[in-house]
């Protein structure tokens, strides 16, 4: 990829300027869920594709460039054979509660985006994929009680890893099924 990867803070700044009414983690989760569900961002803007309400009618060129890069980056990361996908979340130096809430927002967004991609592929999901969706729903509905900082940090890392791997599995199962076979001649 020729352009620098988009980080959480850069996306968060663009979301604020666009006045999307969602958090950056929610937007990234929605996009990843949409892509994992087999959706494709075509000629419509990402904002239109995900049915987001933007206060600004037309994003500035730099903000549109961030959104376009985000679409390319997310698709490439989800499809990475090296399993390099990462949900865009606040950095590890941010407070634990902020990171945990962002992960919940990401999961809510993912489920919404996955639903937007359409029910056709979802009817054919494996038992494992259906279980991952149920677990993501549980995470999305969670609220946290914080106690021991070390234990809480470990638990968040574990949930983060589950979410990361679950998103890639769902992408492989749904979006991978929709990829044309380039070797096939009809």
TrEMBL record:
Listed InterPro entries: YgfB-like (IPR011978), YgfB-like_sf (IPR036255)
CC per GO annotation: cytosol
SUPFAM superfamilies, per database record: YgfB-like
One Pfam family it belongs to: UPF0149
Transmembrane segments: none
Family of this protein: Belongs to the UPF0149 family.
Protein name: YecA family protein
Organism field: Dyella soli
Taxonomy of the source species: Bacteria, Pseudomonadati, Pseudomonadota, Gammaproteobacteria, Lysobacterales
């Amino acid at each position: 990829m020729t352009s620098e990867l988009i980080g959480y803070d850069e996306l968060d700044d663009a979301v604020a300027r666009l006045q999307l009414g969602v958090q950056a983690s929610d937007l990234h989760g929605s996009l990843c869920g949409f892509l994992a569900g087999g959706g494709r961002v075509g000629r419509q803007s990402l904002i239109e594709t995900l049915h987001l309400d933007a206060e600004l009618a037309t994003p500035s060129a730099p903000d549109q460039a961030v959104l376009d890069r985000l679409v390319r980056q997310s698709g490439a990361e989800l499809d990475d054979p090296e399993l390099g996908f990462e949900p865009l979340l606040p950095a590890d130096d941010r407070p634990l509660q902020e990171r945990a809430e962002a992960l919940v927002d990401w999961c809510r967004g993912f489920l919404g985006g996955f639903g937007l991609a359409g029910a056709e592929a979802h009817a054919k999901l494996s038992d494992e994929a259906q279980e991952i969706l149920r677990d993501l729903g549980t995470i999305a509905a969670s609220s946290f009680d914080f106690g021991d900082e070390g234990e809480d940090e470990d638990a968040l890392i574990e949930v983060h890893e589950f979410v990361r791997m679950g998103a890639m599995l769902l992408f492989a199962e749904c979006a991978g099924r929709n990829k044309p076979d380039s070797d096939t001649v009809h």
